[in-house]
Amino acid sequence: MAGQGFEFEDFLPIIAEKLGEDGLIAELCNGFRLLMDPARGLITFDSLKRNAAFLGLNGMRDDELRGMLMEGDLDGDGALSEMEFCALMVRLSPELMEESWRLVDEALQQRVGSP
């Protein structure tokens, strides 16, 4: 598998459209619980490696799995909390990020335009 990349299809916009905001967050939380270490309540390297097959990632190398953790690890503890995981999933969805930036821009425009 060396030299091969993984290609992921972004289903989050479809899920968000069908389930709404609350439904999307609930599904992301379900995904988090599937991958987390129940003893720590976090997604750790070991729990990600153990559960990678659920995501179709069973061929990934250890350094690739560690890279996934580092991408979302905002507090530097080497693991992902539920909030870090959800933020990472949304951040990795180009379409959802585009929509988020559009909403932020609209809110700023309204604020600048109001007295």
UniProtKB/TrEMBL annotation:
PROSITE patterns: EF_HAND_1, EF_HAND_2. The keyword Calcium applies. The keyword Calcium applies. InterPro entries: EF-hand-dom_pair, EF_Hand_1_Ca_BS, EF_hand_dom, KIC/PBP1/KRP1. Keywords: Calcium. Residues 60-95 form the EF-hand domain. GO terms for molecular function: calcium ion binding. It comes from the Eukaryota. Pfam families: EF-hand_8. This is EF-hand domain-containing protein. It comes from Dendrobium nobile. The lineage of its organism: Eukaryota, Viridiplantae, Streptophyta, Embryophyta, Tracheophyta.
